[in-house]
Amino acid sequence: MRRRILILAGVSLTLLILTAVLGFLWMEEAEAINFAEKNLAPCPEHIFGTDWMGRDMFKRTVAGLSMSIRLGVLTAAVSSVIALVMAAAASLFGTAVDRLVSGLTDLVMGIPHILLLILISCAAGKGFWGVTVGISVTHWPSLARLLRAEMMRIRESPYVKISEKLGMSPLKIAREHMIIQVFPQFVTGLVLMFPHAILHEASITFLGFGLSPEKPAVGVILSESMSYLITGKWWLAFFPGAALVVCVLLFQGLGQGINRLLDPAGAHE
Amino acid sequence: MSKGTAEKLIFHFVRMLILIFCVCAAAFFLVCASPLDPLQTNVGQAALGTLSREQIEALEKYWGVGVPAWERFLSWFTGILHGDMGISLLYRRPVMEIIAKKAASSAWLMLTAWIFSGFLGAGLGILAGVKRGKWQDKAVTTYCMIIAGTPAFWLALVLLLIFAVWFPLFPVGFSVPVGMEAADVTLADRIKHAVLPAVALGMTGISSIAMHTRSKMIEIMESDYVLYARAQGEKGWSLVRRHGLRNILLPVITLQFGSISEIFGGSVLVEQVFSYPGLGQAAVTAGLGSDIPLLLGITLISASIVFLGNFLADVLYCVADPRIRAGKTHGISIGAEGKDSGRSTR
């Protein structure tokens, strides 16, 4: 069982890294215009077809996914660190800070996510930084809640109480006792945040707030394809979206795999 | 309702009001921090060059350039307290009026999707939880996994492609037929235009509700009281109905009201795909055109609906749960089953 999970997680990771690297290398090629081969339906040379400027949709899609993956890794990392800091602060610095953090969590969760992203994107002046900042500062609440509950539990345990009585500072307790213990949840939460980050990046770009139209991004590709759907050019929308779904599912598989590998209760499977 | 419950509800209510105020402030100062010049965005760089000094000044006054942020916030917020959200800069009509109009067409969509995803999601979740590990469970879990990874707007695009382009059963977009007098539009027309967006919205909503219901149901099916019921020879549908459904009710209520925010977010995307003139599309237009009063108004209204939903869930909890209704002191005497289910639903 463990072996199977390891293989599955390994394959997912390899595919994702491959996409990220290939897409990065194809950045230039993806934008290569060739009017001799425009509006081609999927064929062996262009498996995802070509668009109205003769750009190869497969390369464009992979370049877009690569962008999404890199952005997703960055934003999820920032977001999960925020979650960890929030959770640690809430569990270590007393009721007032705890109330503040839970109020902040409710606040971020109360505004519908897409609207919040639109607001932040406006505040940051749209474009690349708008999405990056927006996604980084809006994905922490659910992980923060989870980590807070866990850290509260650890805080009540005898050895933390003893450390406190021995005069250990809260920061040292956090570093030496708590973060180590919540590490498995933290890593799982981090990996499971990628799919959310990627989906939100695509959505917000699709609406026109995210990455600028000249960048290769799945959101851009899909919003462009809207004007060509009625004329029957289905491949412009279908394949890029499907590739995005596969990418997200790979991340989910990876996250669940890591979760099961790190879970001590499943060590004997 | 006992005194303790009432106090708790008042606490929740006050907290909700504070949160709504915080949303106002946070949203306002976020938008104020925007480096985008409203004149340049809406008038255009080229046109701006041809304008006279007076015209530019008049426009700057119209878009509120140069007034300190806190001053604008104060006047905006006192306006809200009087039920006035300002004038939309793009539509040139009161924000309240536009929101009311857009919300009316969005409400159809969101309500249908909400009810559809709620019932179907809860049903599928219960089925999967009861039949854990069987093919029904696997089918539901696989569906939910895939849908959870699918962006709502792409699903909408695919539905549009299949049911409007390849098999033209439904119209491609808008909420009423193009070029028809408003008075001639029938209810059938409206429903026909709302079907595809509502299905797209509902399909994405199902997955999270179903997955959460499933895990709660599994918890219940593994509980001591279900084991006891099984030992007494109860099984099948009657076991689920007598012991499962009653205990799953509370978490399902919370999930339902918790999903409002998600439905709202989804509607922004889905309305954009179908050019459906609802709140979501208005939010996108307002955001792209820096129409700050309208964007803030929509944020405020949607956040209020979300918080109100959470509050309603708390109220329903008190009404639906006999233990909370009876107050804490009586709760103990209810017996082992009640206490057990209490633990499993938290």
What does this molecule look like?
The complex is a heterodimer of chains A (269) and B (346). Chain A is mainly α. Chain A has one domain (2-35, 47-268): MetI-like (MetI-like fold). Chain A contains 11 helices and no strands. Chain A has helices at 2-25, 27-30, 57-92, 94-110, 113-123, 127-136, 141-155, 158-165, 170-207, 218-229, 235-262. The longest helix of chain A has 38 residues, at 170-207. Chain B has 346 residues and is mostly helical. Chain B has a single domain (3-34, 85-344), classed as MetI-like (MetI-like fold), CATH 1.10.3720.10. Chain B has 17 helices and no strands. Chain B has helices at residues 3-32, 38-43, 45-50, 53-63, 69-81, 95-130, 135-148, 152-166, 187-221, 224-231, 236-258, 260-273, 279-288, 292-320, 322-326, 328-331, 336-345. In chain B, helix 1 (3-32) packs antiparallel against helix 14 (292-320) and helix 12 packs across helix 13 (279-288). The model of chain B is unreliable at 329-346 (pLDDT under 50). The chains are: A mainly alpha (269), B mainly alpha (346). At the A-B interface, helix 4, helix 5, helix 9, helix 10 and helix 11 of A face helix 1, helix 7, helix 8, helix 12 and helix 13 of B.
CATH topology of chain B: MetI-like fold
| Tally of separate domains of chain A | 1
Cα-to-Cα separation, first versus last residue of chain B: 21 Å
How does the major sheet of chain B shape up?
none
Q: Give the number of helices of chain B.
A: 17
Write out the CATH superfamily name of chain A. Answer: MetI-like
Cα Rg of chain B: 25 Å
Low-pLDDT runs of chain A = none
Oligomer: heterodimer
Total beta strands of chain B: 0
Give the SSE order of chain A as H and E letters.
HHHHHHHHHHH
**What class, by secondary structure content of chain A?**
mainly alpha
Can you count the helices of chain A? Answer: 11
- Strand content of chain A is under 5%
CATH architectural name of chain B: Orthogonal Bundle
Beta content of chain B comes to under 5%
Helix content of chain A: over 70%
Mean pLDDT of chain B: 80
CATH superfamily of chain B: MetI-like
**Average pLDDT, all residues of chain A:** 85
Give the ordered list of helices and strands of chain B: HHHHHHHHHHHHHHHHH
